[in-house]
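User: structure tokens for Protein kinase domain-containing protein, please.
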Amino acid sequence: SDLNSDRQALLDFASLVPHTRNLNWTYNTSICTSWLGITCNDNGTRVVSIHLPGFGLFGAIPFNTIGKLDALGVLSLRSNHLNGNLPPDIPSIPTLQSIYLQHNNFSGEIPNFLSSQLSVLDFSFNSFSGNIPTSLTNSPRLKRLNLSYNILIGPIPYSLRKFPISSFAGNSYLCGPPLPYCSTITLSPSPSPSTMDISYPPEVLGDQNSGSDTELKPVGIMSIAIGGSSILTLSIMVFFFCCLKKKDSKSSGSFPKGKAEHEEKNELVFLPGRSYTFHMDDLLQASAEVLGKGSYGTTYKVWLYEGTAVVVKRLGEVGAGKTEFEEQMESIGRLRQHPNVVPLRAYYFSKNEKLLVFDYAMGGSLSGNNGLGRTLLDWTSRLKIALGTAKGIAHIHSQGGRNFTHGNIKSTNVLLSPFQESCVSDFGLTPLSISLSTPRAPGYRAPEVIKTQKVTQKSDVYSYGVLLLEMLTGRDPLNSSGQGDGVDLPMWVRSVVREERTVQVFDAQLNGYQIVEQEMLKMLHVALSCIAEAPEVRPTMSEVVGMIEEFWKPEMHNKKPSSGNKNPSSGNKKPPS
Ligand SMILES: Nc1ncnc2c1ncn2[C@@H]1O[C@H](COP(=O)(O)OP(=O)(O)OP(=O)(O)O)[C@@H](O)[C@H]1O
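Assistant: Done. Predicted tokens:
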């Protein structure tokens, strides 16, 4: 086989599959540089990927055409109107790594997959029926699997149990871990397909997701989390295709462009010194899941090729114009990298769309509202996170200049590595004067910010103090004292301390460890100084780092497991105040 046979196979494919969008595939043009949706290998000798999402393709796939592309690595025909059964040809292409057929009308059983290279398979939102083929369990490289919203039945094969619920959701008769056990008749754990229509904008899906799955809701620090994801996997590509335009010659003829958009240079802007090499096209072609909706907009985890995930934050309304926006991005980009700060990798600005691209933090957020399995964080982990977070904010303050603030410190913006190294994210966005869809983190806001709406480095210190209180008390600052009594967390803590009931402040889960109690008291002291009413009395963030390091350093702790030595008699003892 060679490029000529690839060309012929594709021309046959195009002639056999009706399509509503124009394919510019003609015999005389260069297949590797000008054919829409086609990518060749580096030396231009073979076709290695086909991406035709949302091209209005109809009918069955003529497998005798695509099956001839024996160097094909990626096949994406998602979000079309394709139907019929899948015969075994496609899966047996030896080089096939990723196959995206989600959001079509395929039916019948999923054929046996023979490609040992297979790493991504997305067949969600079709009408596949029958059992999950056992051959899938023999795909050693399979990293992502999405079979959700089909009509599959029976137990989930053992080796596929490692995939999250979202891989299987919406198949009423599938059962076994990670879904409920098969011995009982199970109902679909997520909304039925009829309530999940492709025409919903991603935000609606995101809301539905968080609203329908109570397990995924934020529940505060008492259930701080690490573990595996169970968020409903969604494709945001339809949305991206609607809203974003490609700029290269390959696509310019085919993607309808608005007048204003036409004049804009719609490409991702990478911040200097960062090492990613992806393009807008890669984001367009990747699939994604909604991580959540925050005050700035909706956040997605987007899977690039080779298993790399990035986080794309789609900003809602931005008050700042393009120049102002770019200047702020440059200020953010100028910050030196720091182990406790999530780097902004790239941004995208057009009239209708503003996107920020960050690294993906594997451990989820401190608040645990990202759908990961939850484990209680012990005191040592909380100390480590508190110190790391303080260092991250101190770095932002010292590098960004006097007026540079984080502006949105709260537990969902403290992200964790699998080893509970903490990283602060979402900083430096307040100057964009983004009109907020929801009020930004009310429980963390310094009193002067509530009055003036202006954030400062000292108001960051206040928010950090509230975050410390959250870690000490296990209570959610956004939900007052956690008692439903409408008292805000700093006020509640101050009143308990005043009444000399200090020990009652602390998270009951941590009680009973003597060394811990001493450290907790010291930390409480730091927190109280951060939440001083008058901004000028509060310490700076680098002072906060010093205050914590005075009594605790991670290296020190490695030798002395403070949370391991439980002293049962100390639990009810009144500590010195
Ligand atoms: N880089 C990242 N890696 C992993 N998870 C992330 C990342 N960025 C955000 N998240 C998670 O995605 C979810 C949504 O984030 P988002 O920032 O949109 O909302 P938020 O933090 O609740 O509010 P805000 O917009 O005010 O920051 C949160 O649970 C957050 O912890």
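User: Anything notable?

Assistant: The CA atoms of residues 444 and 463 lie 5 Å apart.
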